[in-house]
Specification:
By secondary structure, the chain is an alpha+beta fold. Belongs to the class-I aminoacyl-tRNA synthetase family.
Length: 958
Amino acid sequence: MKYNPNEIDAKWQKYWAENQTFAAKNNSEKPKHYVLDMFPYPSGAGLHVGHPLGYIASDVYSRFKRHQGFNVLHPMGYDSFGLPAEQYAIQTGQRPEDTTRVNIDGGVDKEGKQIAGYRKQLDKIGFSFDWSREVRTSNPDYYKHTQWIFIQLFNSWYNKDSDKAEDISTLVSIFEKEGNTNVKAVSDDNIQSFSSGEWNAFSKDEQEKILLQYRLTYLAETEVNWCPGLGTVLANDEIVNGVSERGGFPVIRKKMTQWSMRISAYAERLLQGLNDIDWSESIKESQRNWIGKSVGAMVSFSLVPTTHSSELKAIEVFTTRPDTIFGVTFMTLAPEHELVAKITTPEQKAAVEAYIEKTSKRSERERMADVKTISGVFTGAYAEHPFTKEAIPVWIGDYVLAGYGTGAVMAVPCGDERDYAFANFFKGQNGMQEIKNIFANVDISEAAYGSKDNVEIANSDFLNGLNYKEATKKAIEKLEEIGQGTGKTNYRLRDAVFSRQRYWGEPFPVYYVNGLPKMIDAQHLPIILPEVEKYLPTEDGLPPLGNAAVWAWDTKNNKVVDTDLVDNVAIFPLELNTMPGWAGSSWYWMRYMDAHNENEFASAAALAYWESVDLYIGGSEHATGHLLYSRFWNKFLKDKGFAPTEEPFKKLINQGMILGTSALVYRVSGTNKYVSKNLKDDYETEALHIDVNMVNAADEIDVERLKRWQPQFENGEFVLDNGKFIVGREVEKMSKRWYNVVNPDDICNEYGADTLRLYEMFLGPLEQTKPWSTGGITGVFGFLKKLWRLYFDDNGLIVNNDEPTKDNLKSLHKTIKKVAEDIENFSFNTSVSQFMICVNELSSQNCHSRAILEPLAILVSPYAPHIAEELWAQLGHTTSISEVAFPIFEEKHLVETNKEYPVSFNGKMRFTIELPLDLTKEQIEEIVMKDERTQRQLDGRTPNKVIIVPGKIINLVG
C-alpha cells in the first residue's frame, strides 16, 4: 500500500469541512486558547510559499493545544479594503468589490485571467481554521461595526483625572455647570477659557466647534503626506525614501482638513502596557521609540515685535534640556510651522517660500534620516531669551519637524550635534552667533557634548556649578517664577490622520450641517459604499466619492438619497473621504469571537469568554502602525466597557521572511547571445531574471523551453558548457518581478500539503529570514514515505500488538519530550529533525508495534495532519485524530540503567564493556579484571593503578 498524498489530502480536507472539525465553541468546559494570524490582504497574485510560513506555525501550535485539551479559536479572514484593489480597478476598469471577491473565492477576472483564490489555496495546505467565523473587512455586515466604533470615538473625550475615555455628555455637563477652566482633558492646544454662563450662551454650532477640540476623533487642519499620483494621503509607514511604497509616486507635505484620531491621549498607557505583554524586545523598543516619551520643559520665547508682526506673542518650545537654556544662540522652526508665514520679514519672504516648497517634497522619515544635509533659511525675525533678554535669530530648517514637540527648537549648539552643524554651517550669517560653551571643563572645538553625565553647568548665571538634574530643576523653577515656562512630559506620538481621499474604504457615518459633522444614528448602519462611475478624484479635486450620484443623507427618512436632492434643510451632504486601511484591522480579533452577531460587534458573553488573543503571529513590518492602532482601539473599547482586557495580544511572535532563490541567465552585452554560468567570465555580460520554475535541482534549464517562454529568447544563441546550460542563482525577495515566486499549489500537487508544511518548518528558526530552495523538498517527502512504511508494506497494514522494546520506548519518549518542548518554545525546525531521527531509529529497530506507532501518529499530527489522520483511521479509529490527547512523556524510558564504558590501557581505548550504572568501583574493577580481553592486554602483568570514574571511564595504568 503506497503513500498517495493527493488522495489523502483531498479526503481529509473534505472530512474537516463537512464535520466542522475545527469550529470553536463560545463556551466550553475546556480551557480556552486563542491563536491569531495577521490576516492577509487578498491580492490577485495569490499566495507564494513565503506567505504560509506564519500560518503553518500558528496551525502547528493550534493543533498541539487541541491535543492538550484546549478549546482553540484559530480563525481566518481578509483585510479586503485598501489602495491596491482601487489602483487595480482604475487600471483595468473593474469594480474593486468584484476583483476582491474573485481574489478570495477564485474565478476568472474581467481580463480572462484565472485566479486561484486565497481560500482554495489556504484550504489546500490543510489549516485548522474555524472558517465559520471568516470576516472580510469590506463586507457591510463587518464595516457597520467599524462605523459604530468611529461614532463611539466621536462621542468620547479623554479625562486626565480618571485616565480614561468618557462619554462626551459628561464633558458637556461640566461645561454647563462650571465652564472649562478646571477641566483636565486631552484636547487641542490653545483652547479659549469660558465660564458656564458663556457656554450656555453659545449657539449650538459654537458649542459643537468647541467639542470638536476635545473629541477622540475630530476634524482639524493637519499637515499630511499628500501623494498626487495616488490622489490620497499616506501614513508615514506607507512612504519609503520620499515616495509612496505602492507605485513609487512622489509625496509632498500639505495642509488639509482631515479626520484624526486622538491616539496621543493613550501615549502613556501604550508605553506602560508594553511591560505587561510577552513580545520581543525589538518590537517593544520600536513602539517605545515611536511613542517617544520625553521629560523636560515647555519654554516661551517672546518675539521681538516688528512693524509687520507686532501682534505676535511668543514661540513655544519643548526641550528635554532646560539645564542648557543659557546656551541658546538661535532658534529653528519647522518649515511648516504656522508662525513662519507670520514672522517672516518681507526681505526674507522669497527665500523662505522657496525653501518651504523644496522641503514639502521630502517625507518626515527622509528628513529625520538625513543627518548629512544641512539646509535652512533665516526668517528675519528675532526672539527674546527669557533670562538674558538677548535677541535670538529665528531660522527655519527641515531637521525640525512640525509634528514633533511644538515644531520649534531652542538651538544649543554646544550640546546638540545637529544644532552644532547648523550653527557652524551658517556661522556669521544673519545674526548667527558664535557657539557658547556652557559646560565646565569640556572641549567643544570639534563637536557638541550631548551627554547628561558628568555635566557641570557654566556661563549660566544662577545655574553655574550645578549638575544636569540640579540645573534642570532650578531652570524650570525660575521659568515658572517669571511665567515663561513649566515642567512637562512630551511624546513624539502624533494623532493619527484617519481620512483617505480614495474610494475603496469604509464610508464615514457622517453628514454635514452648516459645515459641522453630525453622526448618523447607529440604528441606521451600515452606510454602504455607493457605486461610482470612476474611482479617480473629481475634476475639481474632490475624493472619488464626489463622483457618486447617490450620496446624501435624508434626515427625515434616515437613508442615503440622490446627491442632487441636497437642500441643507432636511437633506445634507455625506462625508466624501473614506477610512484608512487600518480601520478594519484595528479590532478584527474581537469580531472573530462572535462573527455572526448582527446587533453588536461581539456579545459581552463572547468577549468575556475569549478575553484576548493568547498568541499572535505576523510580520515585523507591523511593529508600529497596526499594532499601535490595535492597542489604542482596544484600550478605548476597554474604557467604554466593551473590551474585557487592557491589551489585545498577550504573546506576539514575528515570523521571518522566506526569500526567493532567483534564476539568472547571462546575456553577452549588446547581443542576443546567452552563455552558461561557468562561461560568463569570458564575456562582458548582463544578468537577466528568468522563471525559476523552469530550472531543475542541478541548476540546468531546457534551452528550448526558455525560447518558448519569452520572445526575446526565441532567436537567441545559447553557448552551452559540456552540453548543459547552467543558470546563476541569487537570493532576494520573492516577487513576480524577479520571476522567483514558487506557488504552494505546485508543491502540494507534486508532494502533498504535509511535505510543504514540514519543509517550511524545517527551513530554520521561525523568526529568521531564510532562502527557499526547492531542492530540499525531496528529502522531506522521502521522510514521509519512510514514516508510512512503518505502518504499511505493499500488502497493507503491518502494525502489530507486540510489546515494545526498551529501545522502541526510548525513541518514542525522546520524541515526545522534544516535540512538546519545541512547540512550546516555537522551535519548529528542530522538531522536524527529531521526527526524522525517530523514524530512522524505529525503522532500524524494525518496530511495527501499535503501542509505539499510535502515539507517533499523534506527535506528527500538528505538523503533518493529513498523513496523521489517515494513519489514525487505518489503525481502526473512527474519529479525527485532532483532539486525541497528546502522549505523556515518561522519564523512566530515558533513564539509562547500563553504561557502555570505554576500557583504556595507559590512556588508549582498547575495547568497551556494558555494565550496570549502580555498580561500585570495586565491583567494576573485579568484572573488568576478570574479562578475558583485559587478560590479553595485560599478558600476565599486574597494573600499577586502576582508575575508575563510575559512569565515565575505566583506565588501567602500568
